[in-house]
Amino acid sequence: MAPKAEIVKRGSSKLSYKLQRELELLPGQLEDLEAKLEALQAQVADAAFFSQPHEQTQKVLADLSQAEQELEQAFERWEYLEGLKNGA
What is the rounded CA–CA span in Å between residue 27 and residue 33? Predict the structure, then answer.
């Protein structure tokens, strides 16, 4: 009798509905975050930006920092979900 071939099961690369839906929505969210970031960067790049009251400039700079973090986290999440989808 010939030995049975070993069957190697790979982890499922199929995402749950919830994760698939999240992955589908992420590109739009990334675009929105990039647009928000560009708008904030344009404000900071304006020559008159730092002549505004300190409180106002600090708020914009804080918003800019927050937008950068949100964009980075969204990209990391997208990469993670793509990796799951592709079985990586």
Answer: 10
* Right CATH for 17-85 from 2.30.30.40, 1.10.287.380, 3.30.429.10, 1.10.3720.10: 1.10.287.380
Would you place residue 14 in the very low, low, confident or very high pLDDT band (cuts 50, 70, 90)? Answer: confident
Nearest to 30 by CA among 57, 68, 4: 68
What are the extents of the domains in the chain?
17-85
Tokens of 15: 């995402």
User: Is-contact 19 81, C-beta < 8 A?
Assistant: yes
The pTM (predicted TM-score) of the whole model is 0.78
- Identify the CA nearest to 16 among candidates 88, 68, 85, 87: 85
Q: Using CA atoms, how far apart are residues 32 and 85, in angstroms rounded to an integer?
A: 23
Task: Please count the other Cβ atoms lying within 10 Å of the Cβ belonging to residue 30.
Answer: 16
